[in-house]
Amino acid sequence: MSNITRWNPVNEFEDLMNRYNRMFGVTRSGGEREGKDLFSRSDWAPAVDIKETPEAFTIEAELPGMSKEDVKVTVQDGVLSIQGERKSEEESDDKKHHRVERFYGSFLRRFTLPENVDENSVKANFKDGMLTLTLQKAEPKEPKAIEVDVQ
């Protein structure tokens, strides 16, 4: 008895585009490929969930296969940046890759922070490939009244 598999036209199209790009030595991002980089993909971004409570915002980023040393989090001018790199496993003489579907390479995610976030309160936790950032909310700034001398 034969197995029934579900046909996914998007996967077929992506496979066709990958084969076409390999034929002309072009990556998905438009750069030239070198022989070893045939299986590497650097056009990825980790999946992120953003949640809000009355006290804080929480950002959770999935970074499977990475360690905390591979990730850098910065806040500058109201923008939170998460960047890092997931390194691929090198092929050796005794091991050959037949299919590589996971994404490898550098990534950068940026998020504009709302005005009510205290940029100095960012706390990071990294466990089991999950980066959790907690950003405390700041007290709303009172509007400042300025007297204008009309002449």
TrEMBL record:
Residues 39-151 form the SHSP domain. Pfam families: HSP20. InterPro entries: A-crystallin/Hsp20_dom, CS_dom, HSP20-like_chaperone, Small_HSP. It comes from the Bacteria. PROSITE patterns: CS, SHSP. Residues 43-146 form the CS domain. Belongs to the small heat shock protein (HSP20) family. This is Heat-shock protein.
